[in-house]
């Protein structure tokens, strides 16, 4: 079997066989600098040692038609900067390499041989292995002992699961510091500034009235809360009409009063998880969420829907008052990474209203819109509608997983989303990517959490 050689995520082994005896390890080329004019009368003083670039000579013979293989290899090697190079006999490490020199070929009859010279500018190999290190409680702090057995500095990723509410995270080592949140927020939650008014489905009531996100959605059916794969989800139970375009059921929640006895939230944050994942091509279904005033005026709403009865294309749409479309995206509601609403990707979603500013979330990034008409609108109700297209059944024709997976709502009494105490709730997972220096909370970017001066130290 030919040695696998992947360059820039493309397999060269389809076009060549690496010749016997090849090894990617030729040793690290070091250069030592000595200091002349030393005060010592013997020899010179040591200055420093640096890694030099290195080269790897890889002899090979062509596979199949020489001209076709030669052209294919040249296309793969045509890069403008070093790319990842992985040899199959050492899959646990890789180089950042770029081809060097010309690709000269010796041909005898129908056989062809050549040599690719790989230039490794930084002169080192990188390990693909990842190791877990866990914190232990010492003197009131969580302490993590990280051991790097390699020869070079390595990035460190962190995952922090909060057992209770916190407003600040500090990671300190001899090499640097990472600080997230606000230190002054660490000592408790100020409920007069920000209050969580509900978490879960308990306050939702069956509602067979008008779906204000889209009044054409019928509401004859019934929703229920049931266990699916260990998760409590809100789902369509059945009983829906069959005469309309979208037929389903609906539940409406009247938002509780705050600690001062006032109802309505002009500024609010709502975190939701929407599980929308097909199991077969041509399945259909939809779910919507609408934030309403006491007069049933739509402040903002969102619809995830799939009416494609042959393929596997779904839509997500956001609306302002008057069913004005803000944004529309198409996606494939599969079990893979292209679908943000499956279990693998977390089903995460949220809404933030600050006066006239509305912030929505889509596939790892936020979008903000200023909508003047919503500035003084106060949210008093939330409607959840889940349904099926036309008269199609709820078995093989229905989106396999069409559920609301979770919902919680917080009222903010401040004009801006700033200095909200205890930004990290119990159960929140904060992930820090050491290489990209990005921070995520429950899988979503947390750009405003980093404190200036954080340097994401390597070890």
From TrEMBL:
Residues 39-117 form the Siphovirus-type tail component RIFT-related domain. It holds the Pfam family Sipho_tail. This is Phage tail family protein. The lineage of its organism: Bacteria, Bacillati, Bacillota, Clostridia, Lachnospirales.
């Amino acid at each position: 079997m030919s040695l696998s050689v992947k360059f820039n995520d493309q397999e060269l082994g389809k076009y060549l066989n690496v010749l016997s005896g090849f090894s990617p390890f030729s040793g690290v080329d070091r250069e030592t600098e000595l200091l002349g004019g030393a005060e010592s009368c013997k020899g010179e003083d040591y200055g420093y040692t640096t890694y030099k670039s290195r080269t790897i000579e890889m002899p090979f013979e062509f596979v199949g038609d020489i001209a076709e293989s030669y052209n294919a290899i040249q296309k793969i090697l045509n890069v403008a900067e070093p790319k990842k190079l992985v040899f199959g006999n050492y899959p646990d490490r890789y180089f950042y390499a770029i081809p060097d020199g010309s690709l000269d070929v010796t041909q005898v009859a129908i056989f062809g041989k050549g040599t690719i010279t790989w230039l490794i500018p930084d002169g080192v190999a990188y390990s693909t292995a990842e190791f877990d290190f866990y914190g232990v409680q010492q003197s009131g702090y969580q302490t993590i002992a990280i051991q790097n057995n390699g020869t070079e500095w390595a990035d460190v990723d962190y995952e922090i699961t909060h057992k209770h509410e916190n407003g600040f995270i500090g990671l300190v080592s001899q090499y640097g510091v990472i600080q997230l949140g606000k230190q002054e927020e660490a000592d408790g939650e100020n409920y007069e500034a920000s209050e969580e008014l509900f978490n879960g489905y308990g306050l939702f009531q069956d509602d067979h009235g008008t779906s204000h996100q889209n009044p054409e959605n019928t509401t004859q059916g019934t929703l229920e809360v049931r266990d699916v794969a260990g998760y409590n989800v809100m789902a369509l139970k059945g009983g829906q009409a069959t005469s309309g375009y979208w037929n389903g059921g609906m539940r409406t929640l009247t938002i509780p009063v705050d600690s001062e006895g006032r109802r309505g939230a002009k500024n609010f944050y709502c975190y939701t998880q929407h599980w929308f994942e097909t199991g077969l091509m041509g399945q259909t279904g939809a779910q919507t969420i609408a934030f309403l005033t006491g007069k049933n005026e739509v402040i903002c709403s969102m619809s995830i829907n799939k009416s494609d009865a042959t393929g596997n294309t779904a839509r997500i749409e956001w609306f302002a008052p008057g069913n004005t479309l803000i944004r529309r995206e198409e996606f494939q509601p599969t079990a893979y990474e292209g679908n943000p609403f499956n279990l693998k990707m977390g089903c995460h979603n949220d809404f933030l209203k600050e006066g006239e500013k509305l912030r929505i979330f889509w596939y790892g990034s936020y979008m903000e819109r200023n909508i003047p008409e919503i500035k003084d609108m106060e949210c008093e109700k939330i409607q959840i509608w889940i349904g099926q297209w036309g008269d199609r059944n709820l078995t093989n024709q229905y989106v396999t997983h069409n559920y609301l997976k979770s919902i919680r709502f917080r009222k903010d009494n401040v004009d801006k989303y700033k200095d909200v105490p205890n930004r990290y709730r119990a159960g929140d997972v904060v992930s820090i990517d050491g290489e990209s220096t990005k921070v995520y909370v429950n899988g979503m970017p947390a750009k405003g959490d980093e404190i200036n001066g954080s340097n994401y130290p390597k070890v």
